[in-house]
Design goal:
Helices cover 6% and strands 41% of the residues. The protein has 333 residues and is mainly beta. The protein has 2 domains: 5-25 and 185-332; 30-77 and 89-172, Distorted Sandwich (Glucose Permease (Domain IIA)). Strands 3, 6, 8, 9, 10, 12, 14 and 15 form an 8-stranded antiparallel β-sheet that branches. Strands 1, 2, 18, 19, 24 and 25 form a 6-stranded antiparallel β-sheet that branches.
Amino acid sequence: MTTARNISTRGALAALVVPIVVALSVALSSESVAQASSPGSGCVGGFGWPVRPFERQHPIRGGFGDPRTVFEQPASDGTALEGNGSFSFHQGLDISAPDRSPVYTVASGTITRARGGRVTVDCGNGRSFQYWHVDPAVRAGQQAVAGKTLLGYVQPKREHVHLTQLEDGRAVNPLAPNRLTPYQDSTTPRVLSISIRSNADRLILEAEAIDTPSLPVPGRWYGFPITPALLTWRIEDASGHVVVPTRLARDARGTVPSNDRFWDTYARGTHQNWPVFDGRKQRGMTGRYVFKLSKRPVDARTLGTGKYVLVVTAGDTAGNRSSRARAFSLDGA
């Protein structure tokens, strides 16, 4: 006969933070940087930055896979938890740049779009790049040369250019190794909190986590968080033995799921920086990123009565990681 189990958490270990490792970023040689921003490059391998100087890293205020949340109802905790709206994954990077900054192509190819604040350059080999929030200075059909062709200028009040990299029509993370260069990141993502709730014999596991941009973002977006590219979890018993091996909750190091699976990755309560509620952008409101550790609740019966520790680890594309642990117990009811 199966009995329901009650779950409780111990405060002593609930806030335990365990640092894991900080991976070293490999500095690019001047030769590889020059190649990334030279004519004819960018359609394979690495590529330079779309704003000058091409060979210097720029601040990124919006990460790949960050949530994009537009709620239909007025701002409130209830709306964030249950409200309807439009929810999607950020399909590129928001690179900080002053308004009217010139934007250049990072890859050679054919311009296939130059209207509506967007410019697209197609390499012709399955790779293409999109540049958003740009007043175009080119036209469709024109040939573009990496690091030389001026695509346009950052639109007023945007303070950034959005860069999307497509491989065979699918958005991929430009910060993956051997793509956007130079790029180094010594900031470490953090797990802010862990939630463990029970529903009969089912455990609902969630975690709130953030990352810090690799370089400080100037102006109005200074200090706002982005999302970790990687989130994993495991369960140990009271002796430290792993009883549920490491499982993947989120991995945006390469690509992201389709938008109809948004709530398979994020948990309710999630919203972006400066979110939109009822048609109004909430200026200065800090994003909150809550992740489902498991798409379906975990069957507590597979663990049995006892004391356990849930360990959640957040990481980025550079290999920086940190963990947080929360103790809980399962008791037969």
